[in-house]
Design a protein that fits this description.
Blueprint: H1 12-15, E1 23-28, E2 32-33, E3 42-43, E4 57-58, E5 66-67, H2 70-83, H3 90-99, E6 103-104, E7 112-113, E8 115-121, E9 137-142, E10 157-162, E11 190-191, E12 195-200, H4 208-228, H5 235-240, E13 246-248, E14 271-277, H6 296-300, E15 312-317, E16 327-330
Antiparallel strand pairs: 1-12, 1-13, 2-11, 3-8, 3-11, 4-7, 5-6, 8-9, 9-10, 13-14, 14-15, 15-16
The protein binds zinc ion (ZN) (2 copies).
């Protein structure tokens, strides 16, 4: 089933024609549980990875490397969704505790296989820019631990571009880390339902005068809606940037003030490549038509990936050379 974003509740450019200069497009990915293959774009699915190429690893020291075993995490997810809200039996409680137990890396000094987070084919995702040298397939990995960088609380994200036609024999089974530092880093296999939508620049990055007029307009809309007992239409909530996993468009800077994101190699202003979001729920007017009234978990967090406390991870790449390393920020 495809996913359809409903039309915006109103045409904001009819009220603010100058917003046309700050219009863009983004491709909403709408990940949903499924059985993707290496030939598909996916979150948490098998990658089209050459059988004879080493799988990427993280060589950083992660302390004792304590975490949960991937198989335990998956089994517990199955169990909890099968149990639903009903009271647990004694036996089930024991099993839940056992599957939630922490284990240590057998060898904390050994390199850790990265987790395959997503792969995106350009043919599926209209807003995915071309990779270096005509690459058409983006593969996204991260380390199963969040203990990198000087403060030892940063994540490690790796992007690999490749030409899909050049991959011969595909790796049958990807190596997995023995434990994951957080279950929120382990995605469930999801198929994608890419859909391109029109977006508008984050309010705080619009020209000052326009931003002030939009603020005043939002306030007037809110007062009118309160008087009428209806839901107000809001620029940031409804008309600029959708929630959920997406490619391209504009970054939302709702948690910090916007700051410049420049390429660490060449200094070029970077572009938003991918947004990894904790949830598509609370999407309000952005909620896909097909998900309305459906099971909550499908539209809330089908990937099981969570960024902090329901935040999103904005991944930027260098438009001058997509082979330059990415940067990211959490919002
Ligand atoms: Zn690592
Ligand atoms: Zn660069």
């Amino acid at each position: 089933m495809s996913r359809t974003t409903p039309p915006r509740p109103l045409d904001v450019e009819a009220f603010f024609p100058e917003l046309a200069e700050h219009r863009g497009t983004a491709t909403r990915l709408h990940p949903r549980p499924g059985g993707p293959t290496a030939a598909d774009s996916s979150v948490g699915g098998p990658l089209r990875w050459p059988a004879d190429e080493p799988w990427p690893v993280c060589g950083e020291f992660h302390g004792v490397g304590e975490g949960r075993r991937p198989a335990d995490v998956r089994r517990l997810r199955r169990l909890l969704s099968a149990l639903g809200d009903r009271p647990r039996t004694e036996r089930e409680l024991v099993l839940i505790a056992e599957l939630g137990r922490l284990h240590r890396m057998p060898d904390p000094l050994a390199p850790v296989p990265l987790i395959a987070l997503a792969q995106l084919y350009r043919r599926d995702v209209p807003d995915l820019p071309p990779g270096p040298d005509g690459c058409d397939l983006l593969q996204v990995f991260w380390c199963p631990f969040e203990t990198h960088g000087p403060g030892r609380y940063e994540r490690e994200l790796v992007l690999r571009w490749r030409r899909s036609a050049e991959v011969g024999r595909v790796l049958a089974a990807a190596p997995e880390p023995p434990v994951v530092g957080s279950e929120h880093l382990l995605p469930e296999p999801c198929v994608l339902h890419p859909q391109r939508v029109v977006v508008h620049q984050f309010a705080g990055l619009l020209p000052e005068g326009l931003c002030a007029r939009l603020d005043a307009w939002d306030e007037a809309n809110e007062a009118a809606a309160r008087a009428a007992g209806t839901r107000p239409v809001d620029y940031q909530e409804d008309l600029s940037i959708p929630p959920g996993w997406r490619v391209g468009g504009f970054a939302s800077w709702h948690a910090t003030d916007p700051y410049p994101v420049d390429c660490p190699v060449c200094g070029t202003a970077m572009r938003l490549l991918l947004v990894i979001d904790s949830s598509e729920a609370g999407g309000g007017s952005w909620a896909p038509v097909e998900d309305r009234g459906g099971p909550v978990e499908w539209s809330s967090c089908p990937t099981w990936v969570q960024i902090g406390d329901l935040c999103e991870l904005n991944v930027f790449d260098c438009p001058a050379d997509p082979a330059h390393p990415p940067r990211w920020c959490i919002q």
